[in-house]
Design brief:
Layout lengths: L1 H16 L14 H4 L23 E5 L1 H6 L5 H8 L3 E5 L3 E5 L12 E5 L2 E2 L13 E8 L3 H4 L6 E7 L7 E9 L3 E13 L2 E12 L13 H8 L13 E13 L4 E17 L10 E18 L2 E18 L8 E18 L2 E19 L5 E2 L6 E16 L4 E16 L10 E19 L2 E12 L3 H5 L1 E4 L2 E4 L7 E14 L4 E20 L5 E21 L9 E20 L2 E6 L6 E10 L4 E10 L2 E4 L4 E3 L7 E3 L1 E3 L2 E3 L8 E4 L2 E12 L3 E8 L18 E9 L1
Parallel strand pairs: 4-7
Antiparallel strand pairs: 1-6, 2-3, 4-5, 6-7, 8-9, 8-39, 9-10, 10-11, 11-12, 12-13, 13-14, 14-15, 15-16, 16-17, 16-18, 18-19, 19-20, 20-21, 21-24, 22-23, 24-25, 25-26, 26-27, 27-28, 27-29, 29-30, 30-37, 31-36, 32-33, 34-35, 37-38, 38-39
């Protein structure tokens, strides 16, 4: 069956190739349709110095608009997992976290900064960020705390949205497919007058049926079934429906020839998003409502050789979780507020750019917990308030007619923590603060035309939460005491690579080695009375290799068309965690880190409206704690384990005594084909998880199997 499917789609791809235009596009190398293939000239929005991608010594990947449009993904999580060779941990129910360069992908630990147009996204949940109106996504790999402060240890993901001008343009698209899924996207933008332009978009995504888990494994199915369990194959994961809406708006006001004001805002609403609590509902079944709005403006101007940007912002996200699975826990409500401003001045000094700026960011977290009877009870932690102010400088220098690029920068951050008093937790309000200084340096030298050597070094930090530093509170699980002298987690990373880019010949290749030392990892420790506190105890070492390679056969015909083979691969040689036990360290393989991640495939675009793409994703092994069993904690710390009973069968009974599991390898393939006709109309087909792979990114939370979506659109 698998071979038949692959053969059918291979034949379809060959047929698609035959449909390329008979006549060469006039001045092909200069047309917009060809320029969008060459990303080297793209200015990286998140670089602070407006540098072109080809000039940056740090490792940068860009996911273009054409790749976004051909992907079956509807949110940033789905896009990144298929195109960035980075690790994603995703759960059913619109929840996902990201891991870059060996830092664990988690929805609770923040080792990557998520930005929208260079500003905080207002959420740590990348599955809640829709792709409608997204122009491109920039992935900066490596430490970037010297530019963006806390959390940027693994890297930065910057989502760049559309900024339209000129005559009105827009599009409407409708999609329908598997699991009774309906998607609608509407966007419009352009100039209202000589001094006003705008963008407005709306997207709805509704999945009306529980999704079905895959029924196959391309590689080592026997081992995969031992971990995933045969009960999951080809079955529906109950309580996995969802509905979400996104609105994005921008109004641009031209103040003068040199100054412009962009007013922007967005609104996200997730309604009755069902969360199954693993395939076997170990953690119960819940439903949640999510709501987030963001607002702010960007004042952008040029004064002499100064390029100034001032960007205040505010976001508020609220999430309500409703217990429907009778697991003994009641409803919860969380509110997360993120606000501040950025002031950046990129000063042009001949061929060099010096960026100096100030970042101010405040984060407020508030929560309410309810009993199953509906009355208030103790929250899991006190409400807190973090205030961070950073002052930075980044200098991008070009020498030898642009062949030798040097980047150097530094940043000082003052971080203040405050926790609020709570009568349930029996704690008083408290506060602490400290300073952190981070720096970076990078060089890139073009040895021969198109062939370059690059290297960079930087350090980064992750600030502890306010309750880890300043909290002191009591719950039913014991007393927790913050540690006032708790240090931030720190890391330093160096990398070295070589690359060759020649757009005229269709070649793009880069191989980069990286090495990271991560220390002062924050862990929760217990005293003899099982009271909790925190300590900077553990450390880790990660090193690996990143390979980016593509070849476009269209270069042989002066880009009459594009037929591109591509690979984006990350291999972790070593990810070793050193856990402090007494005064010594015990080494072990780092958990929750994939040893390999890759995206690869073949795509064809006739540059006249027809495109098709077969894309593969390789998901490597990782070690993970085994919690997939029923546990009796009444004799804590002696826990009694028993197999899960699901529909009268014991699940994974041979694994209940395994503390750590090595999860299997998965291969997930997607296919898409799109055709635009009569200038305004388009039709397309996407098949996600083409081979119906049964896989999970977090143990017990199986991802959807094969799904087919039909799409029609109208451009105006």
């Amino acid at each position: 069956m698998k071979k038949n499917i692959v053969t059918a789609f291979a034949l379809l791809s060959i047929f698609n190739f035959s449909l390329k235009a008979e006549e060469n596009p006039e001045n092909a190398t200069d047309t917009t349709s060809v320029r969008h293939l060459n990303l080297s000239e793209v200015k990286v929005n998140a670089s602070r110095v407006n540098a072109k991608m080809k000039d940056l010594p740090q490792k940068v990947d860009v996911i273009s608009k054409r790749v976004i449009e051909s992907s079956p993904a509807t949110d940033i999580a789905g896009l990144l997992k298929s195109n960035g060779a980075i690790d994603i941990q995703q759960y059913p129910g619109v929840n996902a976290g990201i891991g870059i360069r060996g830092f664990a992908a988690s929805t609770s630990s923040k080792y990557a900064v998520i930005l929208v147009n260079g500003k905080p996204a207002g959420t740590e949940n990348i599955a809640s960020i829709d792709l409608n109106n997204v122009e491109r996504v920039e992935i900066l790999k490596g430490p970037f705390s010297s530019q963006y402060g806390s959390d940027a240890m693994g890297g930065v993901v910057n989502i760049v949205t559309k900024e339209s001008d000129g005559e009105f343009k827009g599009n409407v698209s409708f999609q329908y497919g598997s699991f009774d899924t309906f998607k609608e996207n509407i966007s419009i933008g352009g100039a209202l007058s000589d001094g006003l332009d705008f963008d407005l978009s709306y997207a709805i995504h509704n999945q009306g049926k529980d999704y079905k888990v895959g029924d196959n494994n391309l590689y080592d199915e026997g081992y995969a079934k031992m971990i995933l369990d045969p009960t999951t194959y080809g079955e529906r994961i109950e309580n996995s429906q969802l509905q979400k809406h996104t609105v994005i708006a921008r109004l641009g006001v031209k103040l003068s020839d040199s100054w412009k004001l962009n007013l922007n805002g967005s609104y996200f609403k997730g309604k009755k998003i069902e969360t199954p609590g693993t395939f076997w509902h170990i953690y119960g079944m819940d439903s949640k409502d999510m709501e987030r709005y963001t607002t702010g403006f960007d004042l952008i101007g040029k004064q002499g050789n100064h390029n100034i940007t001032f960007s205040p912002y505010y976001s508020e996200q609220e999430e309500e979780n409703f217990d429907i699975g009778n697991d003994g826990y009641g409803d919860t409500k969380y509110t997360y507020k993120n606000y501040g401003f950025q002031l950046n001045d990129a000063i042009q000094l001949d061929d060099h750019v010096l960026a100096i700026g100030i970042d101010n960011n405040s984060q407020k977290y508030e929560s309410l917990n309810y009993t199953t009877a509906g009355s208030l009870e103790s929250p899991f932690q006190p409400d807190y308030y973090n205030i961070a102010t950073g002052i930075y400088s980044q200098f991008q220098m070009k020498f030898l007619e642009g062949k030798f690029n040097v980047s150097v920068g530094g940043r000082g951050d003052n971080v203040k923590f405050k926790t609020k008093a709570n009568s349930f937790l029996n704690n008083n309000s408290s506060s602490e603060d400290y300073w952190v200084f981070t720096k970076n340096i990078g060089v890139k030298y073009e040895v021969l035309e198109g062939f370059s050597v690059h290297s960079s070094w930087g350090d980064a930090f992750l600030a502890p939460s306010a309750f880890q530093v300043a909290g002191e509170y009591q719950t039913a699980f014991g007393k927790t005491i913050g540690k006032a002298d708790l240090d931030p987690e720190k890391s330093n990373t160096w990398d070295l690579g070589i690359g060759f880019k020649n757009f005229a010949k269709g070649i793009n290749f880069d191989i980069t080695y990286f090495d990271t030392h991560h220390k002062d990892k924050i862990v929760q420790v217990r005293d003899a009375d099982f009271n909790s506190t925190f300590d900077n105890a553990d450390k880790a070492d990660m090193n690996g290799l990143e390979i980016l390679a593509s070849y476009d056969f269209g270069a042989l015909k002066d880009y009459e068309y594009s037929l591109r083979l591509y690979l984006n691969y990350t291999h972790i040689f070593d990810a070793t965690e050193k856990v402090k036990v007494g005064e010594s360290f015990v080494e072990s393989k780092m958990k929750y880190v994939r040893d390999n991640n890759a995206s690869f495939g073949i795509e064809f675009d006739n540059l006249k409206g027809f495109s098709t793409r077969l894309h593969g994703r390789y998901i490597g092994h990782r070690y993970e704690d085994n919690y997939m069993y029923a546990a009796d904690y009444s004799n804590w710390p002696n826990v009694t384990r028993a197999p899960i009973n699901f529909n009268g069968e014991e699940v994974r009974k041979d694994l209940i005594d395994e503390d750590v599991l090595r999860h299997p390898v998965y291969y997930v393939f997607d296919y898409s084909v799109n055709y635009q006709f009569h200038k305004h109309y388009s039709a397309g087909l996407t098949v996600a998880n083409l081979l119906d792979e049964n896989y999970s990114e977090k143990d017990g939370f199986n991802m959807p199997g094969r799904s087919i979506m039909l799409k029609v659109g109208y451009r105006f």
